[in-house]
Design goal:
With 43 residues, this protein is an all-alpha fold. The protein contains one helix and no strands.
Length: 43
């Protein structure tokens, strides 16, 4: 096998991990929306 096989796969893994963590942080940082209910629910 090539000498840089493991290094290349490690770099690809680190890149995927960085993207995954960025997406994970973005999703968890958003707060769920609060729906405002009218006083008279018959409307």
């Amino acid at each position: 096998m090539a000498d840089n096989y493991l290094e290349r796969h490690r770099e690809e893994y680190e890149e995927r991990k960085k993207k995954w963590l960025a997406r994970k942080r973005h999703i968890t940082s958003t707060k769920p929306r609060q729906i405002e209910k009218p006083e008279d629910e018959a409307l």
